[in-house]
């Protein structure tokens, strides 16, 4: 029993509530928001070291015995995600100060970001399936506010669709929870993991598992359900887009990974086979999109979809290499996607457009920016020793050890397409004849570039120092592969 | 009783899908309202309808004849959330109508600023 588990959820909530009291005081807003995220980061680091030394931490609210109260559980997997999502939020905040505009800053931008963080960290931490629904609604509510924030015409148009898709998936979520409760009589994840293997009606549980896959698939943007993502993510400003791209789909991916390793393991021959096929189709669909567009935002948005497919393929293999690879790739993808969106954001600020064909020759005037972009692009594609490599290597290895060697081949082949899609940005924007660009104040440029460059440096460190991080990753993978560790920590309070 | 409820839920879902497939934004919003109602009733029904039994186990009440209080707690949470989301959606729709001058989803496709 350790209340430390709750800190990364409660701290941003308190700071967001405080921030709502004085929306017009610009400097106070910035300072308090950054202090809030920094405090969350500190608490996440404390929780990380606690989980690292003492194993899985669980707290059941109201001191009820475990299956009856709402459990909050922090294992290595969830704390790694909490840590990386908080780091991403911190850098996006630094980036949004110069880019988001005073008008937005004064109309509850920072509280919305902190509420989003509350929801994301809560969804990563919760140990109760209905509570997961509640936290997802918290983060969705904040994301509705952010996606329409500023009220430009494309934003209004796209947020209607975003809202509609998420309302439908929430209704399906409630229905899926209802079916699960009627079959098992519990909603605590650890208790579900105990009860589900005892139930003989595997057929109905398989249906429920697929229904949950549909629900989380809407959030994670898996193959047939990703249609809403490219349009909706295109509308908001770049800082918000970076936050969404790095965090929101990852919550859906996390939920699939958690439920499909912890308790929906009664019929892996069907459910995990389905997951593997869908994952591969997701990768292929994402590649088509990433290569088809000449718009830098669109290219990176479709790369989100590709990464979702790669991660889910790893988890569908259910062996040590695949699961560890998925966890590593998930952490890597949160950092690299945020970094790439911020880099592309600087590109669009410099050129005043996001159309690749109107860009060119930037390497002469911004050499450091150009090479930073190239490093991030190589990191995304997984060129060693950058951070995409260890995760992808393990996922491919997992596929070869499992039954889906063809999936690993697809992942290897599509890595080249991913590389092509981002190097295309580099070639068009940095090589060729220089086009006329508006001069940007040096200070303004640096205030955007420095947080982005630090984020890219972090991903390089994650890749080059992979040896340092592997103990934590394999620790996280062990809990996913042995649900008994998770169950014992929650139920034997 | 559960059978009657199931049929009612099915009708709600059916009406919701019909409304959400129309072009008018306000019909779509009503559809999402009906969809959430259907999901909430489903949650209550799947937990088992307790009839007039009390939701607490007191002296003289055996576990077999008490109503499960958990679905009621869940449905309450879900109702509050869907209420908030629906009101947000209505405000968003009104604002979008003011800015864009239409509530027809056919005209809200949005392809002009990218190819």
From TrEMBL, chain B:
- Write the record's keywords in alphabetical order, separated by commas: Cell membrane, Membrane, Transmembrane, Transmembrane helix
- The domain of life for this entry's organism is Bacteria
- Tell whether ATP-binding is among the UniProt keywords: no
Q: Which residues form a coiled coil?
A: none
- Please state the span of the N-terminal signal peptide per the UniProt entry: none
Q: Where in the cell is it found?
A: Cell membrane
**Principal localisation:** membrane
How is the protein disposed in the membrane?
A: Multi-pass membrane protein
A GO cellular-component term linked to this record: plasma membrane
Supply the InterPro entries for this chain.
Answer: CPA3_antiporter_subunitC, NUOK/Mnh_C1-like
Transmembrane region positions?
Answer: 6-21, 28-53, 73-97
Q: Which family does it belong to?
A: Belongs to the CPA3 antiporters (TC 2.A.63) subunit C family.
Stated name of the protein: Na(+)/H(+) antiporter subunit C
**Could you tell me which species this protein originates from?**
Planococcus plakortidis
């Amino acid at each position: 029993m350790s209340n430390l588990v709750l800190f990364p959820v409660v701290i941003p909530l308190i700071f967001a509530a405080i921030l709502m009291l004085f929306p017009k005081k610009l400097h106070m807003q910035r300072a308090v928001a950054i202090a809030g995220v920094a405090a969350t980061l500190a608490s996440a680091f404390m929780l990380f070291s606690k989980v690292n030394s003492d194993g899985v931490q669980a707290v059941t609210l109201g001191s009820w015995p475990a299956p009856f109260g709402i459990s909050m559980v922090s294992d290595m997997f969830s704390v790694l995600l909490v840590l990386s999502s908080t780091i991403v939020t911190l850098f996006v905040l630094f980036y949004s100060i110069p880019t988001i505009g005073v008008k937005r800053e004064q109309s509850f931008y920072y509280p919305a970001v902190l509420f989003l963080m509350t929801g994301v960290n809560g969804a990563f931490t919760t140990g109760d399936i209905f509570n997961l629904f509640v936290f997802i609604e918290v983060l969705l509510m904040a994301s509705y506010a952010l996606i329409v924030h500023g009220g430009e015409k494309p934003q209004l148009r796209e947020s209607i669709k975003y809202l509609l898709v998420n309302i439908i998936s929430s209704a399906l979520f409630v229905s899926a929870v209802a079916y699960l409760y009627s079959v098992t009589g519990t909603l605590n994840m650890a208790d579900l993991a105990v009860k589900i293997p005892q139930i003989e009606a595997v057929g109905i549980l398989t249906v429920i598992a697929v229904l949950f896959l549909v629900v989380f698939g809407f959030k994670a943007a898996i193959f047939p359900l990703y249609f809403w993502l490219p349009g909706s993510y295109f509308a908001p400003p770049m800082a918000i887009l970076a936050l969404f791209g790095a965090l929101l789909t990852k919550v859906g991916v996390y939920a699939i990974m958690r439920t499909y390793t912890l308790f929906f393991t009664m019929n892996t021959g069907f459910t995990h086979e389905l997951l593997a096929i869908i994952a591969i189709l997701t990768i292929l669909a994402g590649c088509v999109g990433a290569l088809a567009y000449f718009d830098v935002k669109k290219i990176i948005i479709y790369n989100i979809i590709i990464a979702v497919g790669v991660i889910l393929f790893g988890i569908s293999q259910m062996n040590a290499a695949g699961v560890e690879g998925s966890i590593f790739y998930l952490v890597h993808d949160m950092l690299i996607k945020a970094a790439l969106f911020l880099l592309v954001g600087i590109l669009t600020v410099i050129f005043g457009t996001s159309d690749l064909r109107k860009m060119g020759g930037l390497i002469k005037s911004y050499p450091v920016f150009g090479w930073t972009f190239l490093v991030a692009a190589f990191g995304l594609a997984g060129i060693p020793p950058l951070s995409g490599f260890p995760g992808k290597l393990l996922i491919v290895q997992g596929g070869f050890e499992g039954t889906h060697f063809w999936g690993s081949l697809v992942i290897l082949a599509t890595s080249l397409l991913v590389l092509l899609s981002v190097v295309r940005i580099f070639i068009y924007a940095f090589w060729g004849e220089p086009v006329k660009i508006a001069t940007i104040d040096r200070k303004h440029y640096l205030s955007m570039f420095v947080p982005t460059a630090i984020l890219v440096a972090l991903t390089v460190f994650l890749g080059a120092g992979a040896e340092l991080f592997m103990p934590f990753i394999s620790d996280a993978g062990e809990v996913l592969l042995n649900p008994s560790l998770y169950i014992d920590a929650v139920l034997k309070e | 009783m559960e059978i009657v409820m199931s049929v009612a839920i099915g009708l709600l879902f059916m009406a919701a899908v019909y409304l959400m497939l129309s072009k008018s934004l306000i019909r779509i919003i009503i559809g999402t309202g009906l969809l959430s109602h259907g999901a909430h009733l489903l949650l209550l029904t799947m937990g088992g309808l307790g009839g007039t039994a009390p939701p607490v186990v007191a002296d003289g009440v055996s576990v077999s004849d008490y109503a499960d209080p958990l679905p009621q707690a869940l449905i309450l949470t879900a109702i509050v959330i869907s209420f908030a989301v629906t009101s947000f959606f209505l405000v968003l729709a009104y604002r979008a109508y003011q800015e864009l001058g239409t509530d027809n989803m056919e005209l809200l496709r949005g392809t002009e600023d990218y190819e």
